[in-house]
Amino acid sequence: MTDATPPKSTVESRLLGADPRIFEFFHAWRSARRRSLVPLRSDFEPLEIPTLLRYVWIYRFDPDLGDFVCKLAGEDINTAWGRSIKGMTLREIVGPADHPVMMNRWTQLLTVPLLHYGSATERLSEMETQVAERLLLPLASDDDTIDHVLGISLYTISGANRTRTPLVPADIIQIPCAEV
Q: Of 29, 71, 132, 138, which residue has the fewest beta carbons closer than 10 angstroms?
């Protein structure tokens, strides 16, 4: 893994108006990085953010399936999806309409690597009444394998705008890890 000494973060200035829990989550991830570009999965300790656990999830890319598999999902995540999503693939969770866009975004998140922020106005095709503000971050299994997506989703119930196209690029901000 590339050794990087991160400059002063611009995350707060780039995500003006984001929920403070987004930044608390980001700081826990950043402290697990140590001097690496991306932290090891083993260095990120979810118990360091106990008040956020209900909103946190982790997926790992499974090359045999060609898809991401949910390894951990907090109680608010499972409630939002109406069932436990642990062990399910991304395709099974988000559905075929959104899967290609999500795969593209998550693959880019791991290969660049980068932080991915989605505003509370972004919605998935299958979500009728819930929208989420979320931050997605990469994790590595080892020094050469960035293969986990760590995220926080802060769901709110609202009348999702069904006339609005799902997964609009204008609703996201991506920041390369090398910049934070």
A: 71
